[in-house]
Design brief:
The complex is a heterodimer of chains A (113) and B (110). Chain A is mostly beta strands and 113 residues long. Chain A contains no helices and eleven strands. Chain A is globular, with a radius of gyration of 13 Å. In chain B, 0% of the residues lie in helices and 55% in strands. In chain B, the strands form two sheets. In chain B, strands 2, 4, 5, 9, 10 and 11 form a six-stranded mixed sheet that branches. Chain B has a five-stranded antiparallel sheet with strand order 1-3-8-7-6, with no helix packed on it.
């Protein structure tokens, strides 16, 4: 079964550093998303991406965050200057039809120290 | 903005007992989806409901979508230890993004 692949599985970074989280969505999917989940809490929407541009973003997705699809396969989330409160599990998801049946990756656990 | 509320937050049952989690949206939804997340895992898509009053079954799991398309429920009959995890409902409005409920964590005692 096709999978969404995320790397790295765990990233530890110092406060103020930049991090890039990487995702390879399912190849024929057109809609891409980033969500985050602080430990034990609900899954929170960050951003949706379609046709090479951001479709929608949440209040969490401020100027410190950016997304890119640099080639035909990768989808990245960049946090420019990490804060302690950015520590969370970050999930990438994709779907062939917007808003329907997401496939999530295994996530990247980001720890900011 | 759109909110999706889910209750209960936790449920402990004896193996063989039934389990139900309820989901309510502050706005009418175009569809509602259910996901299961095992401890330490990622959300896994279970099912999607689109039509008003729709009922779908997957073996011991029964999913319902309310007539007003603002509420939903998941019922598990005769729970097993493999049912352990957190069950999330997620509502989709017109924009396509999913808003997740807080989840119901199910523990099953053997």
């Amino acid at each position: 079964e096709p999978e969404v692949t995320q790397t790295p599985s765990h990233q530890v970074t110092q406060m103020g550093q930049e991090v890039i989280l990487r995702c390879v969505p399912i190849s024929n999917h057109l809609y891409f998303y980033w969500y985050r989940q602080i430990l034990g809490q609900k899954v929170e929407f960050l951003v949706s991406f379609y046709n090479n541009e951001i479709s929608e973003k949440s209040e969490i997705f401020d100027d410190q965050f950016s997304v890119e699809r640099p080639d035909g396969s990768n989808f990245t989330l960049k946090i420019r200057s990490t804060k302690l409160e950015d520590s969370a599990m970050y999930f990438c998801a994709s779907t062939s039809r917007g808003g329907y049946g997401y496939t999530f990756g295994s996530g990247t656990r980001l720890t900011v120290v | 903005g759109q909110q999706v509320m889910q209750i209960p937050q936790y449920q402990h049952v004896q193996e063989g007992e039934d389990f139900t989690t309820y989901c309510n949206s502050s706005t009418t939804l175009s569809n509602i989806q259910w996901y299961k997340q095992r401890p330490g895992g990622h959300p896994v898509f279970l099912i999607q409901l689109v039509k008003s009053g729709e009922v779908k079954k997957q073996k011991r799991l029964t999913f319902q979508f309310g007539e007003a398309k603002k509420n939903s429920s998941l019922h598990i009959t005769a729970t097993q230890t493999t049912d352990v995890g957190t069950y999330f409902c997620a509502g989709s409005g017109n924009t396509g993004k999913l808003i997740f409920g807080q989840g119901t964590t199910l523990q099953v005692k053997p």
